[in-house]
Amino acid sequence: MVTSSTMTSLYGVLLLLLDSLLTAAFWTVLLVVGGSGCGAVDQWSLAGLKCVTLVLVACALADGRRRAVLCRLAALLCLLPPLLDFLSPDLTPDPGTWLLGAACSAFSCVVWEAGLSGGQSGQKKEDLDAGRLLARVLQHVRVDFLFLSSAFVFLILAVGCDTVIPLYQGKVMDILTGPQLDSDFLSTVALLVFFSLGSCVLTGLRAGVFMCSHARLNKRLKLLLFGTLLRQEVHFFQDNNAGDLSSRLHSDVNKMGLTVALNANAVLRSTVKTALMLALMWRLSWRLTALACIEIPLMAALQKRHIACTKELTERKQDCLAAVEALAGQSLGGIRTVRSFNGERDETRRHREALHELRGVRRQAAVYNAVFVLVRRLGSLAIKTAMLLHARTLIAGGHLSIGSLLSFLLFRKPMSHNLKEILFCCGDTLSTVGVISKVFSYLDRTPPGREEGPLAPQRLRGSLVFQDVTFRYPSRAQDQPALKALSMELQAGKVTALVGPSGSGKTTCLSLLKRFYEPECGRILLDGEPLQHYRRRYLHEKVVLVEQSPVLLCGSVRSNVEYGMTCDPRQVREVAIKVGACDLLDSDADVGEGGRRLSEGEKQRVAVVRALVRDPPVILLDEATSQLDGQAQEAVLREVLRGGRTVLMVAHRLSSAERADRIVFMEDGAVVEEGTHLQLMARRGRYHRLREELFSDLLPVQDS
Predict the structure, then answer these.
(1) pLDDT at residue 287 above 50?
(2) Model's pTM, two decimal places?
(3) 654 phi-psi bin (left φ>0, alpha ψ -120 to 50, beta other)
(4) How many CA atoms within 13 Å lie on the side-chain side of 37?
(5) Given pLDDT bands bounded at 50, 70 and 90, which one contains residue 524?
(6) Which residues are registered as beta bridge partners of 483?
(7) CA-to-CA distance for 323 and 698, rounded, in angstroms?
């Protein structure tokens, strides 16, 4: 099947052939009549004749957008050669010049259609989003207005010095190549040295101030993003692993800062320098300047195509980097599990696959970049060759001196570098749009169901009521609900034990009480008020959870106990003595990441002390003493149950549940039966059968 673009290409080739035939016929006629050249009138007449012919052919071949493309190609084919001859009247036109003009016309048309005008309608929204995101980044820079203002002053002064240096170098060359040394030689050299030193000093000041602004911006953005991430709901961290978020927090924010601070610095510097250099180059030779300016739209078109190719690769590379960091963090953080199950080979394979994918993306990006650099340098070489040929004619005609040519070439080289820098920085900035969008998506994210009320009463009784609560985990939305219309009441100052098989919803109840998740239906009341009516900080201070596998942060045991609050050291020591953790409290050693330098029992004792020093009216125990021996467990439970607190414990050991004032047996997310230990045993229901099963498993086996 022949596509529309293929047909357009075929029609374009046909127009090129027709243009070549008409040009060849014209030069044949000139040779027959014995002419050695043609004047401007002849050239423009031929151009008009060819333009009319080719436009008529284009209208006959195609319609719609294809016709418009072919008409633009016809206009370029016919009008560019005489225009180039008009800009360079000293060059004698020949068939090679006309064929070169046709090739340049075709190349320009392809660049325009494919690089500048193609796909604009589909990119309007994307360009708008890119502009909006960059504008948001600039809003965060306004705080550093004084820094940036001084940096811009240094930049303009440095650019002014850089611009006049080649001009004085050319003057020195003209003086040296003259018949005798001019009397202004020493003053010219002195000015050259002065502007060179000024350029060095001002450039250093400009770079230093911009780097300082970059560091300040990075700090603000990282703090803002870190604070936003901490406010997200628990489910967010289940969908986004810590390694990925850490990569976004550091590498992506750094890239955002570079986009604004360094790229803006480079673009502004290069733009001002290019404008000043173009003005001086125009004074030296407007014809050479016109030839040099041909490079600008060609490079812009090439850069736009390069951006389109590398933008997706940049986003993929960032994702691959985040994945590699996440895998490494997971493997090293879970080294005990990896080592226990001989998973070193699997982890190495997964890491190798992630690195292989990252290398593939980088290799593809390198290929795109190499092709872009090659095409760009070939185009620059062609422009430079044309300029040197024309400069020879101007020097021979006395329109240009050797020193002026040297100044022009000294201007053109940095100007070409400036243009490349502008295009590269613009492309690099646009390629970070995906990164910026990801960071701002985190900054703009509002955690669902995290609203809080104004309630923070001085005294809290601690009564809890579940009213027809239904809940399913967001990551398992298609599964059965973890809780099904659950209703139960926890009396203030009483101990309630949740008992039941694994997966019955016991830990889910604790998570809902801490507002780690929000119920789909129903309400949870604390002293008769829904949980969302309380202040979030107040709720977490009054309702404290002790988990089965508590997580400790890097630092000493005391810093973990006092984490998030200011407490009396004597009170901390009293509680530690009562639960048998005083020896741990006296140690200043770092507990390590996650408390890995402590045993599971020691971590549970530290977690209990951390909860009790807050003296909460409601305490939630999720198998909080499962790793303690009998004596330590008794001491911890005695201290926890003392003081008239409302206690909700998840118990797999029925010996612990027997001490509760009320036992709730759960199964499949619902309450099956509830009552005291004696009531449930007399009822001979599910609780009785579970206890009998556990008791029979503990009986010694009789020899037959």
Answers:
(1) yes
(2) 0.58
(3) alpha
(4) 9
(5) very high
(6) 471
(7) 47
CB distance 11 to 58 below 8 Å: yes
pLDDT given for residue 3 in this prediction: 52
pLDDT, average across residues 597-607: 84
- The rounded percent of the chain whose pLDDT value lies above 90 is 3
Q: What is the mean pLDDT of residues 8-24?
A: 69
| Distance, C-alpha 687 to centroid of its chain | 53
The answer to whether 599 and 560 have CB atoms below 8 angstroms apart is no
**Bridge partner residues of 647 (DSSP):** 495, 619
| Amino acid occupying residue 703 | D
pLDDT confidence of residue 121: 44
Cα 552–558–562 angle (5° rounding)?
80
CATH topology for the 160-443 domain = ABC transporter transmembrane region fold (1.20.1560)
Which CATH entry fits the domain spanning 464-698: 3.20.20.370, 3.40.120.10, 3.40.50.300, 3.30.428.10?
3.40.50.300
- Alpha-carbon span 268 to 621, nearest angstrom: 61
DSSP-derived 3-state class of residue 299: helix
Any residues with CB less than 8 A from the CB of 468 and at least 6 apart, and which?
Answer: 485, 486, 487, 521, 522, 523
- For the segment 45-66, the average pLDDT, to the nearest whole number, is 70
The DSSP code for 179 is S
Among 650, 677, 167, 229, which Cα is nearest to 446's? Answer: 229
Say what the pLDDT of residue 703 is: 41
- Among 90-104, 409-423, 519-533, which stretch is predicted with the lowest mean pLDDT? 90-104
User: How many whole angstroms separate alpha carbon 542 and alpha carbon 355?
Assistant: 47
CA–CA separation, 248 and 435 (whole Å)? 8
Q: Are 467 and 524 in contact (CB under 8 A)?
A: yes
Note the Cα 294 to chain centre separation in Å.
36
569-589 tens-digit pLDDT: 788 888 888 877 787 777 777
Mean pLDDT along residues 7-24:
69
**595 vs 684: CA distance, rounded Å:** 43
Mean pLDDT of 620-645: 77
Phi, psi (deg, nearest 5) at residue 647 = -120, 130
CB atoms within 10 A of CB 607: 25
User: Which residues in the chain are classed under CATH 1.20.1560.10?
Assistant: 160-443
| Cβ-contact 27, 96 below 8 angstroms | no
Domain ranges in the chain with CATH number 3.40.50.300: 464-698
**Which residues pair with residue 621 across a beta bridge?**
546, 649
> Are residues 78 and 44 in contact, defined by beta-carbon separation less than 8 angstroms?
no
* 594: phi then psi, degrees, rounded to nearest 5: 70, 5
Backbone angles phi, psi at 489, to 5 degrees: -130, 135
Cα dist from 357 to 3, 343, 363, 524, whole Å: 33, 21, 10, 48
